Write the structure tokens for this entry.
Amino acid sequence: MDLGITGKWALICGASKGLGFGCAQAMAAEGVNQVIVARTAGALEQAAAQLRAIPGAGQVIAVAADVTTAEGRAAALAAPGGPGRAFDILLNNAGGPPPGDYRDWQDADWLAALGANMLSPIALIRDLADGMAGRGFGRIVNVTSVTVKAPIANLGLSNGARSGLTGFVAGIARGPLARQGVTINNLLPGAFATDRLIATIANEAEGKGLAMPDLVERRQDGIPAGRLGTPEEFGAVFAFLCSRQAAYINGQNILCDGGAYPGTH
Ligand code: NAP
């Protein structure tokens, strides 16, 4: 299927590894030009080289920056050779807040989580959505988590911050942007085989004195698909949400979790 987005410009945050890299790969395969952002320059350059090698890839501009800071976002929007603020596609994605016990979290912990996982995506939406609307096409996708629908006790910072973003998106996606060709959706990963998840499982294994393979197996047993997802699968869903064909999908929270979430809505 031709997704109709060849030659468009995408800003892909958190793009050097994991889910963000999966999304960048899908953009490259569609011939979309992209500015990719992550904090660690070396890993980002490696990712950029891999993306450029994908047949039919568009331009790939790497910006080593922290998208949770105003300076980092400004650097991405000012990338030499990039489109400035004239992006057609935005993937909001960064690391999640740490787990813990809510009794230990001070205001500073909450403000950091809200800044990274709620206010930063909102800032990029604010910076880019009007330009998309003016050009009559825009696709904004925010990586949140299955925990927005099924919160986990020790992920309170994530549950709270991502729910705030979800509420904001639910409103703005249904405002004037909806008649101007701009869609805003959230993509909710379940368990994907990324560095982050593997590190989380390794920590848990150490804490419980269990072998890592046993814990991975236990995790997979709880997923109807019987396995972890791959970043490529996640990227493919993202690419479809960015397509011309997905123009009528807006304001949604789309689970990609191998059937793990047990509810009907
Ligand atoms: P990952 O494998 O650790 O990759 C994260 C990517 O984002 C890296 O490229 C990282 O590079 C970049 N990044 C992190 N913080 C950044 C920042 N402040 N500014 C710019 N780039 C940043 O993580 P992942 O598993 O793909 O997870 C991505 C998001 O999905 C996270 O918010 C995570 O909580 C959420 N999620 C993941 C899963 C899962 O199963 N994997 C499940 C639910 C939710 P640098 O570190 O060099 O910046």
User: Anything to note?
Assistant: Helices lie at 18-29, 41-52, 70-77, 107-135, 156-172, 195-208, 212-221, 231-241. The pocket of NAP is lined by residues 13-20, 37-40, 43, 66-68, 93-96, 143, 145, 189, 191-192, 194-197 (CB under 6 Å). The two ends are 28 Å apart (CA to CA).
